[in-house]
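Lab notebook page, bench 4
Experiment: in silico fold of construct C2
Operator: M.H.
Input chain length: 287 residues
Purpose: comparison with the prior construct
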Amino acid sequence: MIGITLALLSAAVSGIAIVLVGRHSKETNALNVSMLISFTGLMVVLPFAVMFSDFSAINLEGILLFAAGGILTPGLVRLFYYSGLKKLGPSVNSSVFSVYPIYSSLFAIFFLGELLTLGNWIGVAAIALGVVLVEMSCRDNTCAKSVIKDWGLPIIGGLTFGVSAILRKEALNIFNAPLLGVAVAYCFAFIPYFAILIFHKKARNNFSPRRDLRLFWLAGVGQAISWILSFYALSLDAVAIVVPLLSIEPLFVALFAFLFLRGQERLSSKVVASIIVTVLGAVLVVT
């Protein structure tokens, strides 16, 4: 029960953080947002990891899995997610992204030998329907001008998140140190960011941490808290329980976007319906 509660709290806090990013996402780019949120989060997590982790029990395999998961999530996932948020808006982007439990389940079939029940496949169909409803809403909404590649951003982000969730759970099974796991993941998240800055001149020219930090530091704190909660939830409960609960984040995004982004985000009935159908489908997939 504690793991379920922590997963729900993680989804809610992450939803608030995403809406905070959405307020200023048009003013910068995904790399700036990803780096600043990751930097702020690391500053929050690192002191607690140092104080409360048992370094005498460190397991190298677990650390390496945390690191690999960190490169994927939050590293690459934030680039895909915030790029999609900028193109599609918070509600639509989070709804498309939230299909990631499907990827985790499919990977479990191929790599762990697990089987999907009829209810799971009904969930797959529900998720597909939810995405179709989002696409229909985009014909009348602010994302009407988006193109296929924009939709690919949250889809690829969800795929990456699904892989990293399995890596995190395996790491926690080997070395149950959630705070240290978050800190390691955050440290290695900077690898793709630094690679972009080194090899992409335009990215270096547009990198403005001093200007953007004031816009996104609070979202960074929120995401760090969400990550800590989700790691503890995974350490206490199964992936099949925690992941679908994390995927209800779009409900919180839609709610907070409606409350705080009324001038930027229009929440149509189709978007609401798509979010509900997608989340219900995600729950069925991993039940």
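Observations: The chain is about 85% helix and 0% strand. The CA atoms of residues 88 and 142 lie 8 Å apart.
Next step: discuss at group meeting.
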